[in-house]
Structures are given as C-alpha cells and as structure tokens.
Automatic annotation (TrEMBL):
<dbReference type="InterPro" id="IPR018020">
    <property type="entry name" value="OHCU_decarboxylase"/>
</dbReference>
<dbReference type="GO" id="GO:0005777">
    <property type="term" value="C:peroxisome"/>
</dbReference>
<comment type="function">
    <text>Catalyzes the stereoselective decarboxylation of 2-oxo-4-hydroxy-4-carboxy-5-ureidoimidazoline (OHCU) to (S)-allantoin.</text>
</comment>
<dbReference type="GO" id="GO:0051997">
    <property type="term" value="F:2-oxo-4-hydroxy-4-carboxy-5-ureidoimidazoline decarboxylase activity"/>
</dbReference>
<dbReference type="InterPro" id="IPR017580">
    <property type="entry name" value="OHCU_decarboxylase-1"/>
</dbReference>
<keyword id="KW-0210">Decarboxylase</keyword>
<comment type="pathway">
    <text>Purine metabolism; urate degradation; (S)-allantoin from urate: step 3/3.</text>
</comment>
<dbReference type="GO" id="GO:0019628">
    <property type="term" value="P:urate catabolic process"/>
</dbReference>
<dbReference type="InterPro" id="IPR036778">
    <property type="entry name" value="OHCU_decarboxylase_sf"/>
</dbReference>
<feature type="domain" description="Oxo-4-hydroxy-4-carboxy-5-ureidoimidazoline decarboxylase">
    <location>
        <begin position="7"/>
        <end position="156"/>
    </location>
</feature>
<keyword id="KW-0576">Peroxisome</keyword>
<keyword id="KW-0456">Lyase</keyword>
<dbReference type="GO" id="GO:0000255">
    <property type="term" value="P:allantoin metabolic process"/>
</dbReference>
<dbReference type="GO" id="GO:0006144">
    <property type="term" value="P:purine nucleobase metabolic process"/>
</dbReference>
<keyword id="KW-0659">Purine metabolism</keyword>
<dbReference type="Pfam" id="PF09349">
    <property type="entry name" value="OHCU_decarbox"/>
</dbReference>
<comment type="similarity">
    <text>Belongs to the OHCU decarboxylase family.</text>
</comment>
C-alpha cells in the first residue's frame, strides 16, 4: 500500500478526500494535513484521533454537535451525508416503524436537553437494539463522562472497522483523478 500518494496530495485534495472522515468536520483533516508525511493509513487515523483528543471540552462538544441524530430529521428528510446515510441504514435506522421513530425522537430529545449535544454512536458497530439500549443507558451518565463516551464513539468511526481505505473506496463523488490516483497506488 503506497501511502506516498496520500502524502503528496495538496491540502485541497486531501480535505476533499478525507474531509468527512469525522462527520461534517473537515477542519480536522485540514489540520492534520500539516502532520504529513504519514507512515501509513493507520498513522493517519492516529493523527486524527489524537487531534480530537487534544481539543478542549468545547471543541469535543462542537464535533458532537456536527453529528446528525440517529433516525432524526436529516434521515427523515434525506439530507444526511453519503457516509451517514450508509451508516444509519446499515444500523437499521431506515426500517424503523412509526413507534420506533417516535421512541428515538423522544430519547434523542431527552438526551440533547440533558447534555447540550446529540447522542453519538458508531452506527456501523451496532444494530437497532444496541442503539436504543445505549441511548437509554447513557442518558444516566454525568455530562463529563458522557462527553468522553461520545468522543470514543467518534474515534471508533475513524479507526476500528472503518479504515480510511474503505472510506476512500466509498467516496466515488470526490475528485476522480485524486481518488483513482490514490486507489491505484494504495492498492499496490
Ligand atoms: N448521532 C450519530 O451517532 N450519528 C452518526 N453516527 C454514525 O455512525 N452515523 C451517523 O450519522
């Protein structure tokens, strides 16, 4: 896997490719571009999660507030990003019945009222039952503990099963030349 192509990207192409690795937070990729060259894609993921970890509480809460609710209005109105749409769909959020949609709305509303940021979970690692259970259980946390718990879920979305490479193959609408250049080199 040739990481040199990623390291050679202009910051414009880098942000276009990786800008939504953290939902609706392109600033993070724009910032870690300064840390290239990356040893490999795992090193790139580590830089992203370390940047998040280094933020003050207000910055971490800002990242959380950029996440759309699970089964929320963005899903209902079709305004989720491509990544979120796939993640929420995979977790069963697109096949809820009306009672389940109402339950998620009520739990999300209670959560946001209590914490001032939305319930965030790595949807790809959870199913519908997990999400409802975690939302109900995490409502009982204190604010500081829940902020850190939610940020851990964001980091799981960046690292674990969701490698940056799978992200790369996932974004066909980004700059074709950049993507083809990356995939050609990264797959060798
Ligand atoms: N609220 C929330 O966790 N939203 C995000 N999580 C995820 O995996 N996809 C999303 O849209």
């Amino acid at each position: 896997m040739d990481i040199n192509v990623v390291n050679a990207l202009t910051y414009e192409d880098f942000v276009q490719l990786f800008g939504n690795v953290v939902e609706r937070c392109p600033l993070i990729s724009a910032a870690i571009w300064s840390h290239r060259p990356f040893k490999d894609l795992e090193d790139l993921e580590v830089h992203i999660t370390e940047f998040i970890h280094s933020l003050p509480d207000s910055g971490k809460e800002g990242i959380l507030r950029c996440h759309p609710d699970m089964a929320g209005r963005d899903l209902q109105s079709g305004t989720l990003t491509r990544e979120s749409q796939a993640e929420q769909s995979q977790a069963g959020m697109t096949t809820l019945d009306s009672a389940e949609v109402l339950q998620m709305y009520r739990l999300n509303s209670e959560y946001k009222e209590r914490f001032g940021f939305p319930f965030v979970i790595c949807a790809r690692l959870n199913n519908k039952a997990d999400i409802v259970r975690q939302l109900s259980e995490r409502l009982k946390n204190d604010r500081a503990a829940e902020r850190e718990r939610a940020i851990e879920e964001v980091k799981k979305s960046v690292a674990s099963g969701y490698t940056i490479l799978s992200y790369l193959t996932f974004k066909p609408n980004c700059n074709k030349l950049t993507l083809q250049k990356c995939l050609l080199h990264l797959s060798t």
